[in-house]
Amino acid sequence: MESEDYKPDYKDKSSTLQDRPSIDSLHRIIEDQIADEKFDEIRETLKTLHPAEIADLMSGFGALKKNIVFDLVPREIQHEVLIELEESDQEDLLERMSEEEIGDILENLDSDDAADVAALLDEPVRSRVLESTADEDRKEVEHLLGYDEESAGGLMSLEMVTVPDHASVNEAIKAVRYAREKVGIDDIHYVYMVDDDLRLLGGVTILDLLLADRNRPVHELKYKDLITIPSGLDQEEVAQRFQRYDLISAPVVNDKGQLVGRITIDDIVDVIQDEAQEDIGYLGGTGEEEVGERNILKASSLRLPWLLVSFVGELMNVFLIARYEMTLANLIIIAFFIPIIIAVAGNVGIQSSTIVIRGLASGEIPLHHTFRRVLREVLVGTLNGTIIALALGIVIFFWKQEVRISIAVGASMICVVIIAAITGSLTPILLKKTKQDPAHACGPFITVTNDVIGLAIYMFITTSILLQ
Amino acid sequence: MESEDYKPDYKDKSSTLQDRPSIDSLHRIIEDQIADEKFDEIRETLKTLHPAEIADLMSGFGALKKNIVFDLVPREIQHEVLIELEESDQEDLLERMSEEEIGDILENLDSDDAADVAALLDEPVRSRVLESTADEDRKEVEHLLGYDEESAGGLMSLEMVTVPDHASVNEAIKAVRYAREKVGIDDIHYVYMVDDDLRLLGGVTILDLLLADRNRPVHELKYKDLITIPSGLDQEEVAQRFQRYDLISAPVVNDKGQLVGRITIDDIVDVIQDEAQEDIGYLGGTGEEEVGERNILKASSLRLPWLLVSFVGELMNVFLIARYEMTLANLIIIAFFIPIIIAVAGNVGIQSSTIVIRGLASGEIPLHHTFRRVLREVLVGTLNGTIIALALGIVIFFWKQEVRISIAVGASMICVVIIAAITGSLTPILLKKTKQDPAHACGPFITVTNDVIGLAIYMFITTSILLQ
Fold first, then answer.
1. Which among A50, A211, A296 has the least Cβ separation from residue B245?
2. Strands annotated E in A98-171
3. Which residue ranges make up each domain of chain B?
4. What letter would DSSP give residue A237?
5. ipTM higher than the 0.95 cut
6. Which strands make up the sheet holding A259-264, listed edge to edge?
7. How far apart are CA A69 and CA A55, in angstroms?
8. Would the CB atoms of B354 and A280 count as touching at under 8 Å?
9. Minimal Cα–Cα distance from A409 to chain B, Å?
10. B270: number of Cβ within 10 Å
11. Among residues A138, A216, A237, which one has the least CA distance to residue A172?
């Protein structure tokens, strides 16, 4: 659909309806232009791109090329590009900038974005940068930095439109016009009504203002489904509310019911994406590692804890097998099936934990009704485990012509799978009950637990049956 | 924050600013009321809830209680509750309804939701239900059913506001009023301008209409950053555009540039959530299984393929170890380290594949620049593998006082980990290059591949060194 030589022209109004260029093809073009040192051409191309496109483009480049491209971005949209980048890239770019440049960027950003950038600066630099920015901007950023980054307060911006409860539609429109034209707020969805103490009394949508008689008092148009967000609410719960009620914007209130900010859906979409990526990272044993992390040592150290858990757990297996050394020397066939028993048990455990983690996150598995779920996982696991055990038993029978071995290995497989289904489904539930994030502590932990328990069961059952 | 006896009152305007009730506490209250057959009380409670809250509440109940609650939902919001439920629950409820009831629900829903529900009906029922619904509604649903469910066309709704290019602001507001008051569209963000052939010429935001002089022609207010979505675009790419450009609503156009519908952010949030859950499901080896799947056989059959892959792969390991039977009988110590070698290799492989899958999905790893990434994964894997190998070598040395065994096992560990990092990072890249979804085909496949290759390397290296 998108050709390689497509020339987007972002600022030309007549062409904005066209399809946007593919980042992958742009990436190749710019890469060639950097190699040929055609910096003017790059500058021209960047002028035609949306800030988010430039950020996406940059994310595929190494550190050096990222810097080159950022320096060629038109000055007036550098702050918009910066805010779209990953945190580690933002840090790299900020380190190269003068304090004056950083100050300019903070002043151009919305309060929530400015606070996010300021949070990345090291202390002496941050204070000096903030001191040099305009009084109002500085106060806003310092105020927002006071909230927990992962709470509603950390997500909200301070830019919004408020009127007294007794204002008319006409006055509300005047307030919107001021916010739009003087303050530069583009995405206004509500005008909020507050009392003298800034307590939130209600909101009216822009759509209702458009259709209403201009002399009506706004409180008659109060939007009845207005959902508010407490400023201390965890960002995951904020995202759940946005999803549940299909919100595009919501007011944030403090303990006293005062309006302190607003959150918009674009920030929530990022939260949902980040939380899902974080869960995948933890389940895969990479934790907080960013995809773009360039420091090999940092990447290694973020992954090492999972490997060490696995190492320590499997060391127990080493000693367990060693305990059976004499038995194994006489009955070496027992060793043949160690990997398959462990692997199938590991898979069943991960399957159960994956589905339980998803259900706990979505609320489909209520926390006080978990026994039923564990039972279901055991049933599903046992059913599949029995099929695999039968298949394995048959293979062993035709291979070795010994029913006793078939039965010993098959029976172990079924027992091991049942235990795996129980630990796989119970562990995330127990973590959730003790207020921990199931996704963070499952993954490799469940595999290694099942490996150790599974091997112990297997060695016990097979030696009991075969040494009779 | 939310007490157990909290009484929400959704329809009472004065209380809408209050915090919403906790689904978990409601769940317990309703459960007790069902047990006590206090159906009138349940009906009263449901009246005070938002449809999405009722759906969330229902998702935690078993089949029977789901039905009881749904029957007690006020008739006029049943369609809104239905559309918020999981597909499998929707199917169950639809099966119990009369064709007339289903017809009523379709007529009350927005076109995109009505098409989603109609898609769940079996053919003879669907035709009969559609025949009995109003002509216009039927045509809309049939038109939308023609689009691929996972494309932009499958996501869009047909409800939108359009005016000719030469219309005035006043005329545009009239069109908005008609859409709001007669058609019942609540979430209007843009008025779209079209020519006589319905080709999209531009859009103007509700905010711009509010602030503009009522006699100006709308084309002067054209929103310059309007991003359009081709109707055939895959839903994952649609979601990427919404994220990249921070959209809350976007027009969908066909090949001829005609406006055919619009997509709103609430549907995109669901897509992002679903795609992430799907990836987690595939990585964990549960595939398309829904958390709420009540059919044990279906759940088992969805998980079985992953277990069979593991079974077949590990069967190769059984025969591999059997080939070394004589060696093992003499050098039983080799068997001790089989589980730890396999487990660490498996972990390293999953770590590499997890981070590469994330990077490919986000575009941070450009597809034509993958060698660098594989190299990085090998470096990170080798670094960690060497640390683990050293630790293991030291443990073996102090335990067995035999340097040769330490060296043989440690060296195998390093080799196995390097191979695991290569397969873990290369497999998702190759899948992506052959246009397959990396998340769908990785997970258990990578583990089993690494198990087989890892064990072969381990047996070869240890026997080579120790049998000299």
1. A50
2. 162-164
3. 13-152, 162-283, 296-466
4. H
5. no
6. A229-230, A249-253, A259-264
7. 10
8. yes
9. 12
10. 16
11. A216
Six token digits for residue A223: 């939007």
Residue A35 CA to residue B19 CA, distance in Å, equals 57
DSSP reduced 3-state for B414? helix
The Cβ-side half-sphere exposure at A76, using a 13 Å CA radius, reads 2
Which of 270-289 (A) contact B at CB < 8 A? 270, 272-273, 276-277, 279-281, 283-286, 289
Nearest CA in chain B to A287: B351
The CATH number fitting domain A296-466, selected from 1.10.230.10, 3.30.420.40, 1.10.530.10, 1.10.357.20? 1.10.357.20
CATH number for A13-150 (one of 1.25.60.10, 3.30.420.10, 2.60.40.1180, 3.30.230.10): it is 1.25.60.10
Distance CA B275, CA B84 (A): 17
- Decide if pLDDT at A1 tops 80: no
pLDDT, mean of residues A91-103: 89
pLDDT tens, position by position, A321-341: 999 988 888 888 889 999 999
The arithmetic mean of pLDDT across residues B191-208, rounded, is: 94
Helix (H) or strand (E) holding A166: none
> Would you say A221 and A212 are in contact if contact means Cβ atoms under 8 Å apart?
yes
Contacts of A59 in chain B (CB under 8 A): 362-364
Strand pairing of A162-164 and A190-194?
Answer: parallel
Q: pLDDT tens digits for B307-365?
A: 898 899 999 999 999 999 888 888 888 899 999 999 998 889 999 998 998 888 877 78
* pLDDT, mean of residues A359-368: 79
Q: Which of B345, B355, B346, B341 is nearest to B425 (CA)?
A: B355
State how far the Cα of B254 lies from the Cα of B231, in Å rounded to an integer.
5
Instruction: Give the β-pairing of A190-194 and A200-205.
Output: antiparallel
Alpha-carbon distance B112 to nearest alpha carbon in chain A (angstroms): 15
* Nearest CB partner across the interface for B380, out of A244, A303, A364: A303
pLDDT digits (tens, 9 = 90+) for B405-436: 999 999 999 999 999 999 999 999 998 888 88
Q: Which CATH architecture has domain B162-283?
A: Roll (3.10)
Nearest to A361 by CA among B291, B28, B354: B291
Contact status of A165 with chain B (Cβ, < 8 Å) = no
Q: pLDDT of B246-283, one tens digit each?
A: 899 999 999 999 999 999 999 999 899 888 888 888 88
CATH number of B13-152: 1.25.60.10
A20 close contact with B: CB closer than 8 A: yes
Q: Which of residues 357-396 of B touch A (CB under 8 A)?
A: 357-359, 362-369, 372, 376, 379-380, 383-384, 387-388, 391-392, 395
When CB atoms are compared, the residue of B200, B211, B359 closest to A291 is B359
Cβ of A441: how many Cβ atoms within 10 Å?
Answer: 16
CA–CA distance, B121 with B463 (Å, rounded to integer): 62
Q: How many CB pairs under 8 A join A and B?
A: 371
Residues with Cβ within 8 Å of residue A80, at least 6 apart in sequence? A51, A52
Q: What is the spatial distance between Cα B339 and Cα B235, in angstroms, rounded to a whole number? A: 42
Is residue B431 within 8 A of residue B441, CB to CB? The reply is yes
Is the Cβ of A430 closer than 8 Å to some Cβ of chain B?
Answer: no
Nearest to A347 among B56, B306, B318 (CB): B306
Answer for the pair A366, A432: CB distance below 8 angstroms, yes or no. no
Nearest to A344 among B11, B311, B392 (CB): B311
Nearest Cα residue to B333 out of A450, A324, A241, A390: A324
Give pTM, 2 decimals: 0.83
Alpha helices by DSSP H, listed for B212-284, are 235-245, 265-283
Q: Does A60 touch chain B (CB under 8 A)?
A: yes
Mark yes or no for CB contact B269/A268 under 8 Å. Answer: yes
